[in-house]
Every structure is written in C-alpha cells, then in structure tokens.
C-alpha cells in the first residue's frame, strides 16, 4: 500500500509540475502576443499538441482570415487523399489507326522545371491524333485574382492541357533564347510597362535584364494544338466530342515531386492544376470547384469552421480559413501520413529573423511549415519540433498590418523558439 501511495504521489507531483510548466508556457506565449507590434492588426493563433490532444494557446482561432498561400495546405491534403502515386498525364482511346486524347490538367508536361516528356514519348507512336479540349469547367483565372497581374510569372492561366507550364521563358546569353521557340518572333527586346500585351501574346524583354523572364501566355485551343504539333512534329486534329468509351490513362512523374515543388517555392500554377488533376479522378469534367467540394464533403466534413475556399493557390483574397481549421487539416495529415513523407513535403523554415540579425538561428531546423504572403498579410502554418521530442501543430495568421513584415516574423520567431526550448 505504501509503495502504491508513493507512486501515486510522485505521479500527482509530476502532473502538477507538467501542468504548471504548460501554464507558464501559455502565459509567456500570450504575453508575447500582447506586444504593441500586434495592436493595429487582425491576429489569429492556434497552437496544439496532438499527442496529448491539448490546446496550448488559442487567440481569435475561430475567426476567419485571409490565408494567402497557406491555402496550399488544403490543396496538399486534397491531393494526398485522391491522386495516385504517379500523375495522370492524359486520358486516351485508340482505334485501329487513331488515338483520341484529352488533358487531365497535368502541369508537368514539358514544364521548365520538370521537363517531363512521358506523354510526348507516348504520343509519338501514333500517326493520327485527335485532341479534345472541351472537358474544362473552370475559368482561366481564379475568383478574385488581380487583373493587373496577367503578365506576372506567379499567375499563369489554368487549363485542361497545360504545356511548358503555360509560360514563355526568355533569357539572354550570346543571343535571346525563347522557350517554347514558337513565340520567338513575338518577343520584343525593349523596355515596356508590362512583360506582355494584355489581350495578345506579344512579349517584351528588358534589354538590361540578365536573368530568365517567365511570362504567362494566353491559352486557347488552337495554340495548344499548335504547340503540341511543334513538339511532336506531326499534325493534330481538334475534335468537339470524345467517343463514349472507357478511357485509358498514361501516368507521368511521381505525384510527390510535384507536391514538394508546389510547397517549396509556393508555386501557384502547380497548386491550381493539381486540383484540376484531382477532378479528373472524380469525373470526366475538369473543375477546381468539383475537387474542393469533394474533399470538403468527404474528408473535411468535420471542420468546425468550414472555409470559404475559392482557389488552389491562395492568390485570391476571397479565401477565408480559420487558424483552427488549418490546424485541423494539419492534424489529419500528421495522423494519416508517415512522418518521413510529411516532413519531406513541408518546407523547412530555417528562421524568420533577418539574416543580418546577430542572434540568428544557430540550432538545427525545427519548423516545417507553409507560409503565405499578400500585401499586409503574413501567415504561417505547420509543425514545430521541440527539444523534448514533441511535435506541435500551429497556425499563425496576421492580416491587415501596416508595419514591416520582417518585424512580424521576428516576434513570431521568438514565440517559436520559446516553445521549442520549453515545451
């Protein structure tokens, strides 16, 4: 009895110490959030311990915020739950002498980074190719995208059969190199307010530039056919209908390679096209909305605060997520995916402090997270590894601030370091 009593007493004391420690961490974190830096802005925070099912801190965590590119976490989860290990490159049907093909939204086809030619090699075997492009039920631009960014590298058009990443790449060495070369005659070397005309595929390259310029081109059916013809060096016919048959699928590169790139460089084009790819596994119609509705109904029906989710990338300010909803999705990924895969897909955040800070990071990386930035918006959601070996899930959403983003990041880093060292 005495031994049981002593063990019970020790357990009680340990629990009491642990409770006191957590209370202290909560108090310290809350104090850091009361800094005047955060006064004139909208701030939402949710920090959660999945092992103990314990909320460490919540502040405005049930309110809706503009998530910016942290929206890609929802896109990531959708892909993880729906797409196979390899990207569906295209769907097809063959007759004796003809192949009918339709796009799946695969962004990797002849993409400047992936340079995948799986579908190209497959199509070279066929003499008669009929291309169907009427399976797309989304707009080229997402709801609320900035119209003035039509020529910006980060806002290529969405389409059913992307090619070359839907951008023209131009760089100057001894001479001007243009990819795809089809556009070379449309590139003018001169100073201009924009990199492309608004309503036509005429491009401008600053003669003083030394780096690669990537500019979205306007996508239409005739252009896609022409670019594909040039790549294959054979004639292609556009068709308005696809035979009502069971289609087969060609697969290309590993899905994780596209996801990793999307998360690492916050690639908006990849995010949008990945949701289109998801829809090709659900029906014959390619639709961003269809993919979003599916995952919200089937895998995220338990969200306490359902989001307003309008695109895959977070470019739109119409998107609205709560910090709690974001952590809820992070927990699902944490529970359902192997740790190695999870931390391979999420970018490592070395430090949020400026590299010139004398007290910069000197420890091993401990944050795996996705950031999101728009004007007056900075968000960060992901996983924090503590020195005690625990994994903490968190979502910070900063909206409507006017001070430098660097100051916001610096204060967040202090909070993260305190959690790392003491939790």
UniProtKB/TrEMBL annotation:
Membrane-spanning parts: none
Gene Ontology terms: biological process: peptidoglycan metabolic process; proteolysis
Keywords: Carboxypeptidase, Hydrolase, Protease
Alphabetical list of Pfam families matching this protein: Peptidase_S13 (PF02113)
Gene Ontology molecular function: any one: serine-type carboxypeptidase activity
Family from the record: Belongs to the peptidase S13 family.
Protein name, as recorded: Peptidase S13 D-Ala-D-Ala carboxypeptidase C
């Amino acid at each position: 009895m005495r031994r049981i009593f002593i063990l019970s007493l020790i357990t009680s004391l340990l629990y009491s110490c642990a409770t006191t420690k957590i209370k202290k961490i909560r108090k310290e974190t809350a104090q850091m959030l009361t800094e005047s830096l955060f006064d004139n802005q909208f701030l939402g925070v949710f920090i959660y311990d999945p092992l103990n099912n314990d909320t460490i801190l919540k502040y405005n965590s049930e309110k809706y915020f503009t998530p910016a590119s942290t929206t890609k976490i929802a896109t990531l989860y959708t892909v993880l739950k729906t797409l196979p290990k390899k990207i569906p490159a295209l769907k097809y049907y063959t007759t004796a002498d003809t192949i009918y093909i339709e796009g799946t939204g695969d962004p990797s086809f002849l993409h400047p980074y992936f340079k995948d030619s799986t579908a190209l090699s497959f199509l070279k075997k066929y003499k008669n190719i009929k291309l169907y492009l009427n399976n797309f039920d989304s707009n080229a631009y997402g709801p609320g995208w900035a119209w003035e960014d039509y020529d910006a590298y980060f806002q290529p058009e969405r389409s059913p059969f992307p090619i070359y990443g839907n951008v023209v790449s131009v760089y100057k060495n001894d001479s001007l190199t243009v990819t795809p070369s089809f556009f070379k005659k449309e590139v003018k070397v001169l100073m201009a307010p924009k990199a492309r005309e608004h309503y036509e595929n005429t491009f401008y390259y600053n003669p003083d530039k030394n780096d690669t310029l990537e500019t979205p081109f306007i996508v239409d059916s005739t252009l896609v056919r022409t670019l594909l013809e040039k790549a294959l060096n054979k004639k292609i016919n556009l068709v308005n209908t696809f035979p009502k048959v069971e289609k087969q699928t060609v697969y290309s590169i590993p899905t994780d390679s596209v996801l990793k790139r999307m998360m690492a460089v916050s690639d908006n084009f990849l995010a949008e096209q990945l949701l289109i790819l998801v829809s090709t596994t659900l029906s014959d119609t390619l639709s961003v909305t269809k993919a979003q509705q599916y995952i919200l109904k089937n895998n995220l029906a338990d969200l306490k605060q359902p989001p307003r989710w309008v695109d895959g990338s977070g470019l739109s300010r119409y998107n609205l997520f709560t910090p709690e909803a974001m952590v809820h999705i992070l927990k699902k990924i944490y529970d359902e995916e192997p740790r190695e895969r999870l931390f391979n897909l999420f970018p490592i955040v070395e430090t949020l402090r400026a590299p010139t800070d004398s007290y910069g990071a000197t420890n091993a990386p401990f944050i795996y997270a996705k950031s999101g930035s728009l004007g007056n918006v900075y968000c960060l959601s992901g996983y924090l590894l503590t020195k005690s070996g625990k994994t903490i899930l968190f979502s910070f959403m900063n909206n409507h601030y006017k001070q430098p983003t660097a100051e916001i990041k610096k204060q967040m880093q202090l909070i993260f370091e305190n959690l790392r060292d003491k939790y």
